[in-house]
């Protein structure tokens, strides 16, 4: 059978004018800035004006450790919001914005799939409303001001060898991981080593996602540490007086974007840090705004629950005072078989042995949510046509042993109708009392916090600080940053820092090779294993299949 592609489905749908979508969400037109007929920015002043309104229920969608087989987390998030509206509930979805890196790389876009998408899909996956361009511009303005300050006499005494602020571009480009700048003579700056991060890894992205308004944005930007002086004192963006101009570039990007699902459900799509190298959640402003407008808000955090969900709960919820009401853990039978050792070309064949070997990955994620964070959870099996009844029953039986229900999700093929069972279970869970708690206390030392994440969430034996990390840890604690939350940068493919250790490995330790403070965002980034902040394109990038015809119709996006 020939199926329509994601982009063909998105282009065939009849979208509602964004004013109509906003009205359905209870947003007055005075708060809207339209970007064409189907997109709009929403003034963050709306959040202050409806401050007295009660908060809706917050539902987090996360997943097992991702595999090349795909899990469909965003698809499930969108479909669940549509499913909640199918059963008569007022629901809004809150998602991250896609990065151009994966769009043109291997992963593809992040607007959902099949009949559970946010639209206009092409716009969302490409330039959208220009937020990422603004973030990159603000990031690179700061970089330019650092090098200009050094060139123009260096009154702050910045040590060019200890500049920690990198340039950024929203594209996978391995050639920019390590560069030398300032070549070409005295008038072209001071030669030094530098590098590029992908824009989603920039601290400016994290700051935007955590800031509440323009004054808060400027305060956070001013706190960003860009390097150190010759006598080891930190230098901030505020010292360079860069925060005002950076905020001017970001003033519109700070406003959440409103779009819709294929079924007309209002959707906030705003902010987009990667969960394997940043905190992986959409903006606090968009989440809180959605909670003031709807009874149920469905949001997601990037990659597996050990990355996105951990950071959503330990960083975003802690900073923003949020308390989730339920968690959905997305899994697929084929992905679990991959974790159990099945070859990629055998994932469509029934294999109960491989499935049973892979199930501990799902069960460990579920146990972390229910036992570490004390939150009610449901497992959503993103069903594929080749899944057998025996395989589905095995997953359901194993989850029920943990006291967690399983709901089949068929949103890719059926849209909201395919999430009705899941929606009913989520509504039930939201009425349950929960004793939400964090994985660690902020007051604990950097070592204690990292060891708690490693042992309680990854189930590692502990943490080893290697390379520059021991020295950096002492310096950060001396400077007073030891009480900040920890943002672990780690491979998404494994609980460990080795992407080849699938399933639920044990008998391993986490190697932290670098520690860096993101003082504006308010957390410490711990780089583990071989994780990089600038991905590369694959041998056959998705960009090779993307095209546009003479009428401006785009093809090849997925």
Q: Gist?
A:
The protein is α/β, with parallel strands linked by helices and 558 residues long.
Q: Taking all residues together, what is the mean pLDDT?
A: 94
* Spatial extent as radius of gyration: 23 Å
Helix content: 25-40%
* Proportion of beta-strand residues: 15-25%
Shape annotation: globular
Largest sheet: 12 strands, mixed
Q: First CA to last CA: what distance?
A: 19 Å
Structural class: alpha/beta
**Number of helix segments?**
19
Would you write up a description of this structure?
The relative contact order is 0.16. Strands 1, 2, 3, 4, 5, 6, 14, 15, 16, 17, 18 and 19 form a twelve-stranded mixed beta sheet that branches. It is globular and about 70 Å long. By secondary structure, it is α/β, with parallel strands linked by helices.
Topology readout:
Elements: H1 6-12, H2 18-25, E1 32-34, E2 40-42, H3 45-49, E3 57-63, H4 73-86, E4 91-95, H5 100-104, E5 112-113, E6 116-119, H6 121-125, H7 131-151, E7 158-163, E8 167-169, E9 179-181, E10 192-194, E11 196-198, H8 203-210, H9 214-223, E12 225-229, E13 234-236, H10 243-250, E14 257-261, E15 266-269, H11 284-293, E16 296-300, H12 305-320, E17 326-331, H13 333-339, H14 352-372, E18 377-382, H15 389-400, E19 405-409, H16 411-414, H17 420-430, H18 446-457, E20 463-465, H19 469-478, E21 486-489, E22 510-518, E23 523-528, E24 547-548, E25 554-555
Parallel strand pairs: 3-16, 3-17, 4-15, 4-16, 8-11, 17-18, 18-19, 20-22, 21-23
Antiparallel strand pairs: 1-2, 2-14, 5-6, 6-14, 7-12, 9-10, 12-13, 14-15, 22-23, 24-25
Helix pairs in contact: 4-17, 7-8, 7-10, 9-10, 13-14, 14-15
